[in-house]
Amino acid sequence: MNYSEIKKLRQQYKISQIKLSKMSGYSPATISNWELGKTIPSSEDISVLFSALQKSINLIESNTFDVRKKRIAISTVSKKGTPAPIHTAKDYVSRLQNRRDIGKTDYVKTLSNIYQSAQNPVALNAPKTLALFSGCGGMSLGFAAKGYNLIGHVEIEPSVNAIYADNFPNSKLLEKNICLIKDEDLKKWKEEYGSIDVIIGGPPCQGFSLAGKRDPNDIRNQLYKYYVHIVSILRPKVFVMENVRLLTSMKTPDGTLFIENILSAFQKEGYTITKKEINTYEYGVPQSRERIILVGVRNDINQGNFVFPHPTHYIGQHNQTSIKSNYKQALTFRDATHDLPYLESGESSSDPLHWSVVHPEHVIKWLKNVPEGCSAHENKDPSLRPPSGFNTTYKRIMWDEPCSTISTNFSMISGCRNVHPTATRALTIREAARVQSFPDEFIFKGNWGNIRKAIGNAVPPLFAKKLAEEIFNQLLLEDD
């Protein structure tokens, strides 16, 4: 099959280019270029396009299942309790509108303030900062919002470099591949920029994550050595390294812990390291996202060891007489998204990032009566259970709990805890961006797949800002 056949099918069933873009994950510009013959899609691209078209065509031809008229299970009890009665979609929309006051509306404003702060002109004495493995700029946005001067970044992926450039136009792409940076390059950077105050970044985590194969020989596990070498030459006052929490248990082929090798490498270069395992919900991000953060301080800086910011949010009950009496209740998926329009599978809104992919009819049937917090694998009727997978797949998240970890596959309804609490669809790009604490003003461009990957790999800017504030106050704030 070639693209002319794809185009013929699209036109025959009156499926627009925009609709095909949303179903397949390719950008409208890419679809248009293929239509005009300016570029030629690969066989893999053709396969993805045909699969997306076929799903839509099957729904059109069968005309037997309209997701917008489906019955929706709404549960106001715990995931182990008995679900509330079944309601129609119309009932649910009305109920959602009536409950919008429950969401903390200042969350979106908080994110907007982060973006606006990052746009302010930097002060002359602002800490000069380099971002390694910068991604699309989640950590960078948090540091920029605190007033750090982002002078340059290193990132190998072109699609996220394009996003970074739109949001941080004053930061120079110093090199794409960190492995190709030579000592001569580092010396030139020092001549051009002078002393570097801070280096931030997180080497790719797939070699350590449960989402990957956790292969000790994965070459990505060695990328931290390039980070260490750059620190050893540029000698910043402070560096920040972020990675998945499971880095702490990953071992090298000879049986030693990777984290010990990393700590030892930085310590040999004259840095005191503070290590902290955190969950981002503890810092006001509406997402349970466990990470390990290393903050290294150059040994000649007199302030001593860095003290991580204290958590500000909690889940569940707590002792009011304890230090937690000053904590706030953790933000939830509802807090992050309650103002967004209700969508079902295949529907869209005026927000270009808030639209749903088209899910297969049989998957919608599996999930349509599953209450929030539960999986289709738990259905009493065996015919409505997925044939494979775990109870964490085909699973709805909870309205009033922090969202599960946003990964790069958050739009896959079969993924781990990717299903909306009540609508029968996976999360939209806007919902995932909100949960990751990206402001609505943050510019995402490129094909949909690359945007999802950029969001899923990012450090939540809201957490990064709080970390940046503490680093500034403890280590970089100069006395008058």
Structure report:
The chain has helices spanning 3-12, 17-24, 28-36, 43-62, 89-98, 106-119, 138-145, 158-167, 183-193, 224-234, 258-268, 333-337, 361-367, 429-435, 448-457, 461-476; strands spanning 71-73, 86-88, 128-132, 149-154, 172-175, 198-201, 238-244, 271-279, 290-298, 313-314, 328-329. Helices cover 35% and strands 11% of the residues. By secondary structure, it is an alpha/beta fold. α1 runs parallel beside α4, α6 (106-119) crosses α7 and α7 packs across α16. Residues 62-101 and 207-212 have low confidence and may be disordered. It is globular, with a radius of gyration of 24 Å. A seven-stranded mixed beta sheet has the order 5-4-3-6-7-9-8, sandwiched between helices. Strands 1-2 form a two-stranded antiparallel sheet.
**Spans of 5+ residues with little confidence (pLDDT < 50)?**
62-101, 207-212
Helix content: 25-40%
Strand content: 5-15%
| Mean pLDDT rating | 85
**Count of individual helical segments:** 16
Walk across the major sheet and give the strand order: 5-4-3-6-7-9-8
Roughly how many Å apart are the termini? 71 Å
Task: Give the overall form.
Answer: globular
Q: Strand tally, please? A: 11
